[in-house]
Design a protein that fits this description.
This protein is α/β, with parallel strands linked by helices. The chain has 22 helices and 21 strands. The strands form four sheets. An eight-stranded mixed sheet has the order 6-5-4-1-3-2-14-7, with helices on both faces. It has a six-stranded mixed sheet with strand order 15-17-16-19-20-21, with helices on both faces. Helix 19 links the parallel strand 16 and strand 17.
Length: about 625
């Protein structure tokens, strides 16, 4: 029997929503379930609405769906914003003390949403109140479970003779999780273990939370009429629960990155903070060491320091998002003309300008490919999920070292804010290739930019005996001396840009693009759209409808011949991505001289769900779709 449910918790920013979701996710993972969780939040520090949706299944999953099976809320805004997402037969656990509130009492409801909500309630002859919107849910067949969170704390305070508990509303998140687990008839063992682990350094806080969790769990078991449960299932061996930014961070540790300057920016900063907080002790017995993290004064300084580190021979990277990458564009050219290998991990978000600082978007593909003035080679590479990002990080450093150029590793907010179960990262699969990095100079006439037969010059570390070289921002000869000679200029330009041909020839096909099968209707996509596409295709398979999928990972240089080969039997090409202008579609048309037949696009700042991708694909197959299907799900 297949189990597949979604759980949602919401609350004001800073109220512990993420902690609650992490507890719930950990418990589900311990019980043997596959987990896919996604956080959405506003760009302020505290107060505005934040919510976390966790999908749980006893099969492999890669994304969220539209429908919510169980929602728990200790604030009014979560009910107003998400009650209509709860499916028939689903349930809402909510704080009964909210019953007196109206939409006017919730000052963080923005006017556009509030007006839409009022129109909807008015059409159903419902008041603009919590009881009004809950009544609409009940009429759709949703189970309602009101309970006073305040009373739970009061009773707990009385039983434990600890009056301070009455005012600890911060514990509402633990209460909400525990009520949910009780309703779902889940084991309490892992709930207690998760709480104790999270508060391991605060034993008294852990004790109080455990008491609240046990009490609320018992209350949850008294709820009746809900048909869903999560009993323990056989656990897949060698799996782990991991959050998006941890894939690239751990990948950097393992593959030998030892220097990462950065300037804080959402959603990239979490990666650097993780690296600052964790230390690599040993990998395979021979690669100990930690990464030096430096918070710089701005992004220009960050990439400048990264280049300086790379010139010493140290594997160096920086981590940023769109606005920060914009500031780095000039020095990308310095990396290109001096053939300095660096990796820039770019976590995309919605632009332009500041745009939506904490929301999702795949807006920067063409920008990263064309970043920097003049012509110089760079690799642009995109990971489709967190597991991939670990292994791709090592590949990106190898590409940088082997071909002596900048590599932009594209991630995004969807990946950064996701929590998933996946196979444990295997460090033994990581190979480190430093290319032509020299440990000693065996000639009296060292040329840093030597015109070699394969176009790649032996690279001296800064300070290596006999390895004297010059770096400037100007064109140079083989030694690095400035030159404006037209013959030398042509040779150096050819040397650098001919690397593209070498890259396409040498990088294995399976690292350039991945085929999940090709049929008459075939999707092309990149980055985090991979998960929703895979799940949508799986949903269509249940209806005996086969749709192909080719994930393009190497985006610059574009693997034209290989993608053309993969799509040879596809009659209809469907481009799926999270931007307005279908940027992959433009690349596809540019290189394969063929426009995609249909587009499925989302640019609301919210991540795709497999449900809406499935619905659009089905419309395309049935001939009822628009040329551009625009996805809109998400609060």
């Amino acid at each position: 029997m297949t189990t597949d449910i979604s759980w949602l918790i919401g609350g004001p920013q800073g109220s512990g929503v993420e902690s609650a979701a992490n507890v719930f996710s950990r418990v589900c993972a311990q019980l043997g379930y596959q987990v896919f969780g996604k956080r959405e939040f506003y760009s302020n520090i505290k107060g505005e609405h934040s919510y976390f949706t966790v999908r749980i299944a006893n099969k492999k999953i890669h994304s969220n769906v539209n429908d919510v099976t169980l929602m728990v809320s200790y604030d009014a805004e979560t009910i107003f914003r998400h009650a209509d997402e709860v499916m028939k037969g689903g349930a809402i656990i909510y704080d009964s003390d909210l019953d007196a509130l109206t939409t006017d009492d919730v000052h963080t409801l923005d006017s556009p949403f509030k007006n839409r909500l009022h129109e909807s309630l008015k059409s159903k002859n419902k008041p603009f109140t919590i009881p009004g919107i809950l009544e609409t849910a009940k009429e759709r067949g949703v189970n309602l479970y009101p309970i006073s969170f305040k009373s739970i704390l009061a009773k707990l305070a009385e039983e434990t003779q600890n009056p301070k508990l009455k005012g600890l509303i911060r514990m509402y998140n633990v209460i909400g999780v525990s009520l949910s687990l009780g309703l779902l008839k889940m084991e309490t063992k892992y709930l207690i273990e998760s709480i104790e682990s999270i508060f391991a350094k605060k034993p008294k806080v852990a004790e109080i939370n455990v008491q609240a969790a046990n009490y609320a769990y018992n209350q949850g078991t008294t709820f009746t009429g809900f048909d869903y449960s999560l009993p323990k299932v056989p656990k897949q061996p060698h799996t782990m629960l991991v959050q998006g930014y941890q894939g690239t961070a751990i990948g950097k540790m393992v593959c030998g990155c030892r220097f990462q300057p950065y300037y804080p920016i959402t959603p990239a900063s979490d990666e650097s903070v993780y690296l600052e907080s964790n230390e690599l002790l040993e990998v395979n017995g021979d690669r100990p060491g930690s990464t030096l993290i430096v918070q710089s004064e701005d992004e220009i300084c960050a990439i400048g320091m990264t280049l300086g580190g790379a010139v010493t021979g140290t594997r160096s990277a920086t981590c940023t998002s769109g606005p920060g990458f914009s500031l780095m564009a000039e020095m990308m050219g310095w990396s290109g003309i001096n053939e300095v290998p660096i990796v820039v991990t770019s976590y995309q978000r919605s632009g332009p300008s500041t745009g939506l600082p904490t929301r999702h978007g795949q807006d920067d593909l063409l920008f990263t490919i064309n970043a920097g003035h003049g012509e110089f080679p760079k690799v642009v590479y995109a990971s489709g999920d967190i597991e991939e990002s670990f292994y791709d990080t090592a590949r990106c450093f190898n590409y940088a070292d082997i071909y002596q150029l900048p590599v932009i590793h594209l991630m995004d907010k969807f990946l950064a804010s996701s929590v998933i179960t996946c196979p444990r990262f295997d460090s033994e699969k990581i190979e480190i290739n430093r290319g032509k990095l020299l440990n000693e100079i065996k000639t009296d006439d060292y040329k840093r930019f030597e015109l070699t037969p394969d176009g790649i010059s032996p690279r001296s570390k800064l300070g290596l005996e006999g390895g004297v070289f010059w770096n400037t921002g100007d064109e140079s000869d083989e030694y690095g001396h400035i030159t404006e000679d037209p013959i030398m200029r042509r040779k150096m330009m050819d040397k650098r840009l001919n690397k593209y041909e070498k890259i396409l020839k040498e990088i294995p096909d399976e690292e350039q693009a991945v085929s999940f099968g090709v049929h008459e209707y075939t999707v092309i996509s990149w980055g985090s759209a991979k998960g929703p596409v895979l799940d949508a295709i799986d949903m269509l398979k249940q209806e005996n409808i086969n749709v192909g999928f080719v994930q393009i990972k190497l985006l610059n240089p574009f693997p034209t011949d290989y993608v053309d080969f993969l799509l040879e039997k596809a009659k209809k090409i469907i481009d799926v991505e999270a931007n307005h202008t279908a940027q992959l579609g433009k690349l596809f048309a540019q290189h394969l001289h063929r426009d995609p037949d249909n587009y499925i696009l989302k640019y609301t700042g919210r991540a795709m769900t497999s449900t809406e991708v499935y619905a659009s694909l089905k419309k395309i197959i049935n001939g009822t779709a628009e040329k551009r299907e625009i996805l809109m799900h998400g609060a």
